[in-house]
Amino acid sequence: MFLKRDPRFVSRLTRDTLALIMAGGRGGRLSSLTDWRTKPAIPFGGKFRLIDFPLSNCINAGIRRIGILTQYKSHSLIQHLHRGWGFLRGEFGEFVELIPAQQRMDKPLWYAGTADAVYQNIDIIKAHEPSYVLILAGDHVYKMDYGAMIARHVEADADVTVGCVQVDLEQAKSFGVMSVEENGRVTALTEKPAEPEHMPGNTNQALVSMGIYVFNREYLFGILREDAENFSSSRDFGRDVLPAAIARHRVHAYSFSDPVTGKQAYWRDVGTVDSFYRANQELIHEEPELDLHDDEWPIWTYQAQLPPAKFIHDQEGKRGIAIDSIISGGNIIAGAEVRRSVLFSQVVVRAGAYIEASVVLPHVSIESQARIKGAIIDEGCTIPAGTVIGEDLEQDKERFHVSPGGVVLVTAEMLGQEVAHVR
């Protein structure tokens, strides 16, 4: 096959690709975590933000032309991008370009859906003259070489290629479920079905869309114009554009798998409080599926210049210790105990406090003798001395948000506090 004879083929494809990251959604199922920030700006994994994963995948795959479409409460996202993603060189044709929602059409409307967001910016896409347009979600956690997917798109002579993963049937109810022929051609896409269709030969799992698409440029323009003229459309790729494409054109599936083992690769949609909590907790395992220490596929981000984490006091019952945990820079564990938890930067835990199986976002102060278990503490909170969270969920429900899985989400507003810094 010609790909084997020319190892530079994939790199030429990625250089001729424009990536568009959809970063405008609120993510309402994340409750108060998105009250003041768009979903892709949510901190993850001790030092990153969700947007860092698709951005890092692009950079590592050789895609250096990236547009980020923003809309809902994007200030903290824009601030993060300005601080951490300004290292690309414009004179080399490289960029991370912010594309905010604007009054660009005859009617002054916000983006009506994912497809409309791209349609309203066709002129910007044209100006960059890519051969391929890669559409990405800005709020999933995974490491993926998009070059391999683009190469498969070209090999299959597809009009559009959809990235997909295998999930359990119950989980598939929250996604777009795909029906696929043996050659990879997609025959149907059903959004959030009550009874998902299982994969051929596997009655326990379904093939679902990752919200990642590779389009041929001119084909994308044509099908978006058709969608814009359809007054019954909700202007969404998964609900409208792709089903219309499947009926008439060449839509292929690209199964996201580990290139070494061939098994399902790590991918998480952290769209709920419970899934966000679980994905963070998975990182503290001895050998987590998502290896953040991988030098060959690093996750890039902005990080402030902070001192190392510090553990102080060596008194019986008041030792500063952390076990099976992730502790970020600028943290002080002062005579407190932290177990199986993820602590982001500039967190202070004072004497006698105890934290277990929790996720603590940046700029949090946990005062003496507080006890926290199975919780997410949002940015900027001060947990008063002696406070108990996570031990009596019925009591917690009176003040905080308790997820269906029993995770307690605490924000500064719930504590009657104001947050002075930008989130």
UniProtKB/TrEMBL annotation:
Q: Which reaction does it catalyse?
A: alpha-D-glucose 1-phosphate + ATP + H(+) = ADP-alpha-D-glucose + diphosphate
Looking up CDD domains in the UniProt record yields:
ADP_Glucose_PP, LbH_G1P_AT_C
| InterPro entries (alphabetical) | ADP-Glc_PPase (IPR011831), ADP_Glu_pyroP_CS (IPR005836), GlgC_bac (IPR023049), GlmU/GlgC-like_hexapep (IPR056818), NTP_transferase_dom (IPR005835), Nucleotide-diphossugar_trans (IPR029044), Trimer_LpxA-like_sf (IPR011004)
Q: Where is the Glucose-1-phosphate adenylyltransferase/Bifunctional protein GlmU-like C-terminal hexapeptide domain?
A: 307-410
| Alphabetic keyword roster | ATP-binding, Carbohydrate metabolism, Glycogen biosynthesis, Glycogen metabolism, Nucleotide-binding, Nucleotidyltransferase, Transferase
* Positions bearing the site annotation: Could play a key role in the communication between the regulatory and the substrate sites: 71, 110
Its Enzyme Commission number(s) read: 2.7.7.27
Tell me any Pfam family this protein matches: NTP_transferase
Read off the SUPFAM superfamilies from this record: Nucleotide-diphospho-sugar transferases (SSF53448), Trimeric LpxA-like enzymes (SSF51161)
The family note in this entry says: Belongs to the bacterial/plant glucose-1-phosphate adenylyltransferase family.
Which protein, by its recorded name, is this? Answer: Glucose-1-phosphate adenylyltransferase
